[in-house]
Design brief:
alpha/beta; 5-stranded parallel sheet; about 50% helix; globular; disordered C terminus
């Protein structure tokens, strides 16, 4: 991992590295904290922790997130806890200083922004990118009505894009739009069914432009 971080640091455009919580071994929460402390102590790049317990089998408490945030080389978290929980609300009610909590579950991006998330790392924003930008700007500006309206318009697109394992539908839509040369994915993923891609293409086409 450190070798990969050092290699990334040689690329001028890279300002931080997204690093997943350890998976398969299912360490204790203390082990996860020790892992990131060791990485952060040696990493030439600031770290953004990718918290996705559905895939790692390792959940992190609000207290653990705050301990990670206290390290000067850990600057944020892609927060994909599978929904909004009491810990989520408590964390965003009093977010750690200089630490960006970024929504990582596309389906709850809008409520996460409403609660105070700094932004999001979302697959869906590859489509209708301007509207996702407008969503974030509405949240930052406290324009609740606009946030709700834009979020409601984007909800159908997000649901369609996640109707099969991500990123298979998204790749199918991008291929249909001529933005990527192929929708191929590696096993064990399989390409999304044509009807699923077609539904997502239709959803993308019916999302209106945002107004400010």
């Amino acid at each position: 991992m450190l070798a990969a971080l050092r290699e990334l640091a040689e690329r001028p455009a890279v300002s931080a590295a997204l690093v997943s919580v350890p998976y398969h071994l299912r360490p204790s929460e203390a082990g996860v904290l020790a892992h990131f402390a060791a990485l952060a102590a040696e990493s030439p790049l600031p770290l953004v922790v990718y918290h996705i317990p559905e895939r790692t089998g390792q959940d992190l408490s609000e207290a653990a997130v705050r301990r990670l945030a206290a390290h000067p080389m850990i600057v944020g978290m892609k927060y994909a806890a599978g929904g909004i929980r009491p810990d989520t609300v408590a964390l965003l009610a009093d977010p750690p200083a200089r630490f960006a909590v970024l929504a990582g579950d596309d389906a709850v991006l809008t409520p996460m922004l409403a609660l105070g998330a700094a932004g999001g790392i979302t697959a869906s924003a590859h489509l209708r990118t301007g509207e996702f930008v407008a969503l974030a700007e509405a949240a930052r500006g406290g324009r609740v009505d606009q946030l709700r309206a834009v979020g409601n318009r984007l909800a159908g697109l997000v649901a369609a894009l996640f109707a099969a394992p991500n990123p298979t539908v998204l790749k199918g839509v991008l291929r249909a739009a001529g933005r990527i040369p192929t929708a191929a994915v590696r096993l064990p993923l399989l390409p999304a069914p044509a009807e699923t891609v077609g539904a997502a293409v239709a959803a993308a086409g019916t999302i209106g432009e945002c107004t400010t």
